Amino acid sequence: MDIREERAAMDERRLAALETLSSVVRWLKETKPSEIFYIEGEGKGKTPAPTMSDEHLRVIWQRWVAKASDVMERSAMIPDLLLSDLERLFKETSKDAQETRTP
After folding, report:
1. Is the dihedral of CA 4, 10, 13, 17 positive or negative?
2. By the 8 A CB rule, do 25 and 72 touch?
3. Buried b (16+ CB within 10 A) or exposed e, 26-63
4. Which residues contact 60 (CB under 8 A, 6 or more apart)?
5. How do residues 78-100 score in pLDDT, each as one tens digit?
6. What is the pLDDT of residues 46-57, one digit of tens each?
7. If you ran DSSP here, which 8-state letter would residue 35 be given?
8. 3-state secondary structure of 51
9. How far apart are CA 83 and CA 100, in angstroms?
10. Is the pLDDT reported for residue 43 higher than 70?
């Protein structure tokens, strides 16, 4: 595979990952996780299901916040991933070039 083809494939994967990440972040911002736990047939602002305690709701909310912060941390790591991708690409290409030169 040519270096241009490899780079184009990496760019496509990277763009797809960024689009997925942005849609997940957008969904987390637009969705209030505690709204999931309301009784069916009741809308926003209604009382939560009586079977769920405040402590249980708090634990579930903390899990959602942890997930959202994890997504944000991963989005901050993407530029580092781009650099490591390029480093790996050039290391692999130089190794391939050395192998083809050897008789």
Report:
1. negative
2. yes
3. eebeeeeeeeeebeeeeeeeeebeeeeeeeeeeeeeee
4. 33, 34, 37
5. 666 666 766 777 777 666 656 65
6. 555 556 677 877
7. G
8. coil
9. 26
10. no
Positive or negative, the CA dihedral 37, 43, 49, 52 is positive
**Residue listed under structure tokens 């249980």:** 56
Instruction: Show the tokens assigned to 47.
Output: 């009382």
H or E element, residue 86: helix 54-101
CB 99 within 8 A of CB 9: no
- pTM of the full predicted structure? 0.35
For residue 62, give both structure tokens: 């903390």
Token output for 69: 């912060």
Q: Which two tokens stand for residue 100?
A: 């083809």
- Identify the residue whose tokens are 């790996």: 88
